[in-house]
């Protein structure tokens, strides 16, 4: 599979559900200027999926602080999304989720992002961080049993924002407030010396 890193995110126009209402045409272009976390999940009314969608909603304030918006996408219809949104969490639903949930009924979005499981007709748990200019800067794809970490997604947004603002790169396990480094041999040596001290 060819990587999408560094390339413009494939745009689309699709039906979606936002804050309990059906939207006829949602596109990435509408959100240019924000960080977008586009994440795919296999199906509505399943098991790991609601835990992920709820976790992204519970981090709403953290995404807002970063001028970032999560968007979920699956091969279900917008009607299925709406029914799932109207199902209480205690019954396996995702009531209270407010960010866009995109319907990829013809599977073209999952195909364009390289996360479609051809035989099953559903998507892997793909996640893509799209920068303010529409370029994909980070991607991760999990198999179906493996739920994602929202705190890691927030860390990656912080790292990208830090790089964009300061021109410094973020070493392993970097978190906001920790030392970054200039992308030079001297910068690496300085960081290593500070890390040892």
Descriptors:
seven-stranded mixed sheet, Glutaredoxin, two-stranded antiparallel ribbon, alpha+beta, 197 residues, 22% strand, 9 strands, elongated
Number of strands: 9
Quickly name the level 1 CATH class: Alpha Beta
Rounded to the nearest angstrom, the distance between the terminal CA atoms is 42 Å
Shape: elongated
**Mind telling me which CATH architecture this is?**
3-Layer(aba) Sandwich
Gyration radius from CA atoms, angstroms: 18 Å
What is the overall pLDDT average? Answer: 95
Largest sheet: 7 strands, mixed
What is the CATH fold-level name? Glutaredoxin
Query: Which runs of at least 5 residues are low in confidence (pLDDT < 50)?
Result: none
Beta-strand percentage? 15-25%
Active site: 49 (cysteine sulfenic acid (-soh) intermediate)
Pfam families: 1-cysPrx_C, AhpC-TSA
Organism: Estrella lausannensis
Protein name: Thioredoxin peroxidase
